[in-house]
Description:
The protein has six helices and five strands, in the order ααβαββααββα. By secondary structure, it is an alpha+beta fold. The protein has a three-stranded mixed beta sheet. The longest helix is centred in the C-terminal third of the chain and has 24 residues. It holds the Pfam family CBS. This is CBS domain-containing protein.
Amino acid sequence: MPESYRPPLRKDDKEARTSSQSVSSNTAVSDLRVQHLLDQKDGALHTVRPQQTLHEAVELLRVHRIGALIVTDANGALVGILSERDIVRKLADAPGKTLPHKVEDVMTRAVETCTADESLVTVLKRMTNGRFRHMPVVEGGTLSGLVTIGDVVHFRLTQLEEEALQIKQLIVG
């Protein structure tokens, strides 16, 4: 072997080494806030008044293809939430006589809310533990949005698809 030959050594690598995972990449999901999700929604809030009938509420649910309505007073303040589940319970209690009832007779009054700054993971855990699928977002006493389990799942799936694409691009080049 000639004396001028020397096999490459690790110290010869001048490029900085990178790693596929880091503390920041592994905890990025837990850093996501409700506001990130709200920024991607259309911002439409579908509301109903407590004095309206369930028939009117059911029509709104059907027309907008949603599973819950936020119940607000004349000033727009949150006073409850009316979900499909609330209506089904009333249907079981008063079969054939449900639609004439008022929203205020059926709505959930003790509404769990969150803020736009809350972690999406925390909100999802609260929804899962409480067994409800809709959570109004309230900022300074004002209703600013609605988060659903479907929104969170869709948001996360979109992120995972983007991450998978980035990984493919890194592999392919």
